[in-house]
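Checklist before submission:
- one chain only
- standard amino acids only
- sequence pasted in full

Submission:
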Amino acid sequence: MMTDDQMMAHAIELAHSALAIEEVPIGAVVFHNDEVVGEGFNRKETDLNPTAHAEIIALTNAANKLGRWRLHGCTLVVTLEPCPMCAGALVNARVDRVVFGASDQKSGACRSLYEIADDPRLNHRCEVTSGVREADCIALLQSFFKSRR
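Returned file contents:
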């Protein structure tokens, strides 16, 4: 069985793919039974699409590969805490588990500002694990934004 650290290593590789096309370096990967079924990285600037977040792309790819939109049995791993849109998509997709690296104090919706992913008022709750390879994820983001200033 893959560890959270091993899964996050793959998400970090995807974040580097975003960096290579000058996108904010965020990567996300969906695992089902230790197999990658969906992956994505930020493409908002490239696609001129405000919804082209790493998580949305990874969820769409996973749904297409599995042939179903209900992603029970899946874990989404992402380098930055999901925003409200992405946290809502995780709940709607019925993802079992969300693992993230860096917290997002400005728009984090799994712990920092909101707790959408496991809000007991919603029809589905995801198990949330935070801080996996946090220092690596933070360093990647800080390096990107420092180069922009």
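Reviewer check: Residues 31 and 75 are 5 Å apart (CA to CA).
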